[in-house]
Amino acid sequence: MKVIYNRFIPFGTYHGLNLFGIVFVQRRWGKMEPYELNHEFIHTCQQWEMTYVLFYLWYVVEFLVRLVQYGFHAEKAYYNISFEREAYANERNMEYLHERRLMAWTRYLKHS
Which residue from 7, 54, 58, 68 has the highest number of Cβ atoms inside 10 Å of its Cβ? Predict the structure, then answer.
């Protein structure tokens, strides 16, 4: 996974943006912590197993569904996308990617 530090991407308050396994980070945030890199690598695995394009389509559709589900509260919708739930739940487990099963994100589809 490649990390590119730059001045513009991602926009807003997001620390990193993973596009096709390349992580963009604004320099103002400084170096990514190991757990943040692990979070992004989890996304890279999700993208790979869904052939990238399907990952992004699913991500957008699920975000829109969650947006309606949570009364148009965008932050709550974002944190409840199954891909994000898997990544946040396991980002501090540095062994997770070694033990992760294929399509593990599907376990996070059902809202708890």
Answer: 58
